[in-house]
């Protein structure tokens, strides 16, 4: 797991505090909730990355079995086409 992003956690805790009406004495609860939120987001991101890596590996094996060549450019995510500007 990457190093904790304390700025993100602090901003989330502050938001939770504001959303709950800015009560006194609840800072620890808000901090722990924000920390839990950050950890769940990181876990979700890690699972997504692992699934993507598995799918890429499977595609490479399938391509090799079919005699196709996979280049690094083919594996890189594509950017969405930019919208045309009105001019």
Give the topology, please.
Layout: H1 6-19, H2 27-65, H3 72-75
Word description of this protein:
The chain is mainly α and 87 residues long. The protein has one domain. The chain contains 3 helices and no strands. The protein has helices at 6-19, 27-65, 72-75. α1 crosses α2 (27-65). The longest helix is centred in the middle third of the chain and has 39 residues, at 27-65. The chain is rod-shaped, with a radius of gyration of 21 Å.
Name the poorly predicted regions.
none
Strand content: under 5%
Number of helices: 3
Biggest beta-sheet profile: none
Helices and strands: which structural class? Answer: mainly alpha
Number of DSSP E strands: 0
Helix-strand topology string: HHH
Quickly count the domains: 1
Q: In which range does the helix fraction lie?
A: 55-70%
* Terminal Cα span: 47 Å
Q: For the CA atoms, what is the radius of gyration?
A: 21 Å
Shape: rod-shaped
Mean pLDDT: 84
Summarize the structure.
With 87 residues, the chain is mostly helical. The chain has one domain. It contains 3 helices and no strands.
């Amino acid at each position: 797991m990457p190093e904790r992003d304390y700025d993100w956690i602090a901003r989330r805790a502050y938001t939770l505090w504001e959303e709950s009406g800015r009560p006194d004495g609840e800072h620890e609860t808000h901090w722990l909730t924000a920390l839990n939120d950050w950890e769940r987001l990181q876990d979700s991101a890690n699972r997504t990355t692992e699934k993507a890596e598995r799918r890429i590996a499977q595609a490479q094996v399938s391509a090799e079995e079919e005699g196709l060549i996979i280049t690094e450019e083919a594996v890189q995510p594509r950017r969405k086409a930019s919208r045309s500007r009105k001019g």
